[in-house]
Design a protein that fits this description.
alpha/beta; UDP N-Acetylglucosamine Acyltransferase, domain 1; 6-stranded parallel β-sheet
């Protein structure tokens, strides 16, 4: 009986994946079959998501943004963003002042959206925490953990991410 439940669950997940694949590709969003993208998410035309990308219903993504093996939960992402492999954006956070960080020990907390503006490049394996605002034309270095706001036309990197330099040549855009 347990094996039947597992098989049925896998079968449902497979059909949901097929439905999501055809749903998004018919709307001008290129996704691969291995992606798990909620049909309740808001995604603009021209986007491309590959690998084992997961995008939940709380995500809003502008046009022509792309990425591979992403995990996007509670986020608003602008147009023309380049997102490197294995980036995580707006994942749920846990309170540290409760008797446990396990969700069964505390009431649901309201998570703020991570906001990423247009023309942002997020490097491989970067992590963008909830509530962060990344302004336009910014670059986040590979492996960075962004826990505070990022200025426009700048490069940030490190754990936690700090400003490395201003991108002066783009200030005229």
């Amino acid at each position: 009986m347990k094996l039947l439940k597992i098989l049925f669950s896998d079968l449902l997940r497979f059909f949901a994946s097929i439905y999501s694949y055809f749903f998004w590709n018919s709307k001008g969003v290129r996704v691969t079959l291995s992606c798990r993208i909620s049909i309740k998410a808001k995604i603009g035309k021209g986007c491309v998501f590959t690998g084992n990308t997961v995008i939940t219903d709380k995500a809003e993504i502008g046009q022509n943004t792309y990425g591979h093996n992403l995990n996007i939960h509670n986020a608003s992402i602008g147009n023309y963003c380049s997102i490197g492999p294995d980036v995580k954006i707006g994942l749920d956070e846990h309170p540290l002042n409760e008797k446990s960080t396990h969700p069964s020990f505390y009431d649901k907390i309201v998570q703020k959206k991570a906001i990423i503006n247009d023309h942002v490049w997020l490097g491989t394996n970067s992590v963008i925490l909830c509530g962060v605002v990344i302004e336009k034309h910014s670059v986040i270095a590979a492996g960075a953990v962004v826990k505070s706001n990022v200025e426009a036309f700048s490069i940030y990197g490190g754990v936690p991410a700090r400003k490395i330099k201003l991108i002066a040549s783009l200030n005229k855009v």
